[in-house]
Amino acid sequence: MFTQQHERGPAMPGLPNMQGMMKQIQKMQEAVSRIQQELETKTVVGEAGGGMVKVTANGKQHLTAIAIDKEVVNPADIEMLEDLVLAAANKALEDAGKMAQEEMAKATNGMLPNIPGLNLPGF
Fold this sequence. Notes:
The protein is an alpha+beta fold. Helices cover about 45% and strands about 15% of the residues. The protein has helices spanning about 20-40, 80-110; strands at about 45-50, 55-60, 65-70.
């Protein structure tokens, strides 16, 4: 009968510690989950028309409020009001997206490798 003994070393030399990597991934998932909950309560305001139209969005990029100054409401020029609302909403959503990215970056700082060309949403 042929038997051969092998020395036990790392299962795959040159590969990272899988258990440590799994712990790091779990920490990152917990941080991302916490940040996602916090983003629901954080808000940004996009303005147009010198502040006459204000749109509020939360960090989840949901619009939560719209405020329109009475002076900008002109029944003869609805298109202008529509343009102002769109501009304010787009600004609010853009700022909310930036805020979410910044918060996620803080939560995952150092946990993800810097791989060129790897652009993960929310990181």
